[in-house]
Each structure stands twice: as C-alpha cells, then as structure tokens.
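Title: Request for sanity check on AB hydrolase-1 domain-containing protein prediction

Description:
We are preparing a figure and want to confirm that the structure record we downloaded matches what your pipeline produces today. Could someone re-run it with the sequence below and paste the raw structure tokens into this thread? We only need the token string, no images.
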Amino acid sequence: MVNTFKIYKPLLRATMKLAGVRPQKIEKNANNGKKPAVVFLHGFVGDGILTWQFQVLALARDYAVYVPDLLFFGGSSTGDGRRTVGFQAECLARGLAKLGVQQCTVVGFSYGAMVAFRLAELQPELVESVVATSSGPVVTESLSRECLDRLGFPTWSEVLLPDSASALKKLLEIGSFHFPRLPKCVFKHALESVRVKTHS
C-alpha cells in the first residue's frame, strides 16, 4: 500500500514553493526584505511546514514568513548534546540573525510557544511580540491531572508522543479547530514516516 503521507509532503512543499516559501539551510547571511517578519514555531509533533501550512499560505504574500524546524525535528539537527528550551532559543536567534531578521513577531504552538517565550526573554530587541497557544509552562500538578483526565490520556508523554494511529488522530483533533476527516491509514502512514526518519 502507498504511504499517503509520503505523497502529501512533496505536494505540500510544491504548494509552498508556488506561494513563494522556500526551504533554506542556514549557512550564510541572507536578507529578509522590507516585509514585517513572522516566525512560526511548531510543537512537539511534526515539523514547521506541516504544523503551519495554512497560516503560511495565508500570510506569505504580505509578510516575510519563517518556519524553522526546531532542533531534532524535521530536517534540523546538531551534534551538540544540549536539549533545553534555552538552547533551542539560542540557536533560533543565531539562525534568524544569519537570515537578516532584525525584528519579528513569533507565533508558537505548544513546545514552540515555550521556545518563543525564551527567545523573547533572551532577545527582547528581536522579538516584537509573541503569540502563544497550547502552552503550559506554569501548569500546576492538579491542573495537569485534570487536563489529562479530560483528554483521556494517562500521561503527557502519551499525548505528545502518540504510538498508535488512533492516539495521533486524537492529538491532532485536540490541537485543531474542525480537523478534517481523514482515513485511519493517513495517521498510520504519518507514524510510519516519523519512525523511519527517527531510526535512519
């Protein structure tokens, strides 16, 4: 059977290219032009473009849109052993500087929102404003337990790292407004794609 996820990603990349969004490895300086800059930071599942595809397509004409893959997600990697939110923010700041971004609005979802707050703390002259959603950096234990009970998961690791197609579907439905109805095989293929990338 054909993995629908492996077909969709190249189509999505082609659509982004038509909208003027290009992937770029940050290895040299670049100029972001005169449009206001918006940086989208993804959560703990997927990569930047998959998370923000609709927002990117809506804003790409009027804004300089940046959609980085945070370290250890998508196509982003490092040999450095640090795994902190602060390290993510430091690397992001260096990458944006190399791209010529001097001021931006940072939009973060879940883990990405935590990185956005840390980036704003580290680089107040860079971050003009932060838009954060689905992030709980100051959640108490009782509120955390109540949220897990309502979501129907025993632990946060089972929410953030789904190990079945039904768990992934539930996670995406939780984090989306009117998530489209998709066949179960799409979620299965998405998990298979992530596992292959992780183990290769």
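Thanks, this matches our download. Residues 139-200 form one domain.
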